[in-house]
Amino acid sequence: MNTGRGKEEGFTLIELVMVIVILGILAAFALPRFADLGGDARAATLQGAIGSVKSAAGIAHSACLARSSCDESSAGQTVSLEGTSVDMNGGYPAAAAGGIDVAAQIQDDFVLGTASGTTIQISADDGSGSALTDCNFTYDESDGTVDPTSVTTSGC
């Protein structure tokens, strides 16, 4: 008659501790990859704003061309987009407040810099109403474009 203990099943305390240690090490290496997703999100938002600006410039320019009273060669024109007045210069939304920011509907989330000739720098908002440095792009009202070389996302 065999009176010994039967075969025990389950994990020992050492095995459980080792699994927890291994999971901790894996988490320590994986955490930095996911820790700063805010910068990536701001960079993606900036890319979305660039698309909005390009589309809005094209739509506003088309609206100007469709109106006989809109003179492409002069400043101070306005067009109405969805009931909102957009300031125009040379047939494209102006590189100033009330122009491209209103046309692209980005005035609440982005900060307009000081206009320089026909261009203006548009920066991501840092959350307090100030511009993030090195998280911006430049809009040119002379042809309604965004220069791809002007896009900076390193500071997002």
Automatic annotation (TrEMBL):
Pfam families: N_methyl
Entry keywords, A to Z: Membrane, Transmembrane, Transmembrane helix
Species assigned in the record: Tamilnaduibacter salinus
Top-level taxonomic group: Bacteria
Gene3D superfamilies with a match to the protein in the record: Glycoprotein, Type 4 Pilin (3.30.700.10)
InterPro entries in alphabetical order: N_methyl_site, Pilin-like
Name of the featured protein: MSHA pilin protein MshA
TM region positions: 12-31
